[in-house]
Write a sequence for this structure.
């Protein structure tokens, strides 16, 4: 007959295995989530109110929550595939302290916001090729997503709402490497690419852009 201590060991081992499996499940789930480098959220609540008043629209609640919590942000190595449409996402637009080209004010100043509003949408994100993700703000398309092809000026309806779309976006965890780390990585794989002063400048610009910013998992 086995002693109580024997059963205790078995139970502890099983608990350990369960905890390990749960940890792996959580890790896998996090790999499937949207990650961004958010912008400073100072003054975003008032900026949203002013924007809604100026253009006589209302943001969907989940999107408003996203802006209040993150104020948009950069999204590196991020992509989605929905209804036969696949694209990467470079950034989500924000207010106030969002970077210049990812700022709603930039969209206003360049006339793009007005152009998209005439179609019943606002732009909320962009890909690497200048295309935009649009969010419906009329009774007919409220909280529905669409893809705007800037070359063909075409709007493709994605038939999904904002929160479900966010749940389908996948991002890789991104570490902003130092110049030294990049050079070491190139040497480790035998890269013969010349490391020019211009290349180092480009690297440094990226490093400076993300200095002091933490990549976070988006949770609505």
């Amino acid at each position: 007959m086995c002693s109580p201590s024997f059963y205790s060991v078995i139970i502890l081992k099983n608990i350990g295995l369960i905890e390990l499996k749960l940890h792996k499940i959580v890790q896998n789930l996090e790999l499937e989530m949207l990650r961004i480098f958010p912008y400073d959220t100072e003054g975003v609540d008032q900026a949203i109110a002013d924007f809604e008043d100026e253009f006589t629209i209302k943001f969907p609640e989940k999107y408003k929550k996203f802006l209040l919590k993150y104020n948009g942000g950069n999204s590196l190595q991020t992509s989605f595939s929905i209804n036969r449409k696949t694209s990467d996402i470079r950034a989500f637009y924000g207010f106030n302290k969002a970077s210049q080209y990812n700022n709603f004010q930039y969209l206003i100043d360049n006339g793009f916001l007005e152009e998209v509003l005439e179609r019943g949408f606002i732009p909320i994100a962009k890909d690497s090729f200048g295309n935009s993700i649009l969010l419906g703000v009329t009774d007919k398309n409220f909280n529905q997503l669409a893809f705007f092809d800037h070359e063909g000026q075409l709007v493709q309806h994605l038939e999904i709402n904002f929160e479900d779309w966010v749940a389908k976006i996948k991002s890789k965890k991104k570490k902003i490497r130092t110049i030294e780390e990049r050079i070491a990585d190139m040497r480790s794989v035998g890269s013969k690419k010349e490391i020019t002063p211009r290349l180092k400048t480009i690297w440094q610009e990226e490093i400076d852009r993300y200095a002091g910013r933490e990549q976070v998992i988006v949770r609505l």
